[in-house]
Amino acid sequence: MGRIGKIFLLIVALIMVGCQAPSFNGLGGVNTDRINRTLPKVRNFKAHPGRNQVALTWDAIPEMGGYYIQRWDPESKSWVELATITNPFKTIYVDDDLKPNNYYKYQILAFTRDKVPGPWVQTGTKTLPPPAPVIPVFAQPVGNGVIKIIWRPHPNERVHEYLIQRYNDHEARWEDMETKKPRYNVEFIDTGLEDGKIYKYRIIGITFDGLYTFPSKTIRVSTYPRPPVVTDAVATIDRGKMIIVKWSPIADVAYYKIYISDTPSGPFEYHAKTDKTYFVDKINKDGYKRYYKITAVSKFGTESLLSKTPVVMGETLPKPAKPIVSTNKFNNIVQFIMTSPDNRAVKYLIVRKTKIGFFKEATRKFVVSTNKFQDQIAPNTTYIYEIYAIDASGVASEPTVVKVEN
């Protein structure tokens, strides 16, 4: 193998192991302002690129004292010192911690043992691009607010971990989510996400020596959508001791959730769920108002927006109006004629109370389906009658109290 071939193999080996540059202190006494152009010029000065390193090679000049190397800084637009090498037999220098896919320019000179510099020689090269990007193969929602992403293991065995990033729409920037290693750990699961929202991800491979691959293509995944808002719920206002809420069905819904409040402005608390399109709310109160919101829940567990759901009011049937009672008494008989002011009464309950002795009281109940009632009463006795109007739902009014003395 020729001399050039041996040098090339040595360069590759140095780049692979991350060879470090030799240490140096300042200019080492080299005054580049007094260059002697009659001194030997460095020959075959070449730059051999890696991804984050450049290996510089040249032919040795044994009769000189060493070499001085600089790199061009495009920001300051000036040459900066890299190394002062005091061994004239050394012919390789590795510049590392560079950026992939960037152009770097170098110059070198040889100086005498008395630190007199010879003429400059320049070279340059572009570092290699980063490794190929990661290739995603699966990206889907897999649960309520859960997204799963799988990608191919990177073919470059120097890649030993992956950085997963998610785009922050509010701040317009990519944010680091998690790192995964080793190379075959190619699964990421994101949880706690909003329903029905598109999320963007990308994956970056990282090598053992800290090199980043190009980002993968942007992965766009939507979480499971929320069902439509239930907008047409209605509630009864004419049922005794209950409120019935009804609404139209929504496709692909697993069940519905019922929220209640005592005020139209809330807060609304979870009350019950049903797979029907109606709900019977049994309430043991008359004339009681309750406010409802109905949400739909999909088979994925996503729920329609409670905040966007309209409020519907229901009310149990109030008590019937107290009956108006007229009284007639003759021949130890009392007769009552009842009138229902709201025409809701379908029957009447009459509760008769009679005192027996000082502490006891006898009570008897009568139910009539007409608006007339008469009762036999004893002489020298006081009776208290409580008369209730009863509607078709069995709801009783407040009593009209009639005192009868015979």
Keywords:
single chain; 406 residues; mainly beta; Immunoglobulin-like; 4-stranded antiparallel beta sheet; rod-shaped
Quick overview:
The protein is mainly beta and 406 residues long. It is built from one helix and 28 strands. It has four domains: 3-126, Immunoglobulins (Immunoglobulin-like), CATH 2.60.40.10; 136-222, Immunoglobulin-like (Sandwich); 234-315, Immunoglobulin-like (Sandwich), CATH 2.60.40.10; 324-405, Immunoglobulins (Immunoglobulin-like, Sandwich), CATH 2.60.40.
Structure write-up:
- By secondary structure, this protein is mainly beta.
- It is about 5% helix and about 45% strand.
- It has one helix at about 5-15, and strands spanning about 45-50, 55, 65-75, 80-85, 90-95, 105-110, 120-125, 135-145, 145-150, 160-170, 175-180, 185-190, 200-205, 220, 235, 240-245, 255-260, 270-275, 280, 290-300, 310-315, 325-330, 335-340, 345-355, 360-370, 370-375, 380-390, 400-405.
- Strands 4-3-6-7 form a 4-stranded antiparallel beta sheet, with no helix packed on it. It has a 4-stranded antiparallel beta sheet with strand order 11-10-13-14, with no helix packed on it. Strands 18-17-20-21 form a 4-stranded antiparallel beta sheet, with no helix packed on it.
- The chain is rod-shaped, with a radius of gyration of 47 Å.
- The termini are far apart.
- Residues about 1-25 have low confidence and may be disordered.
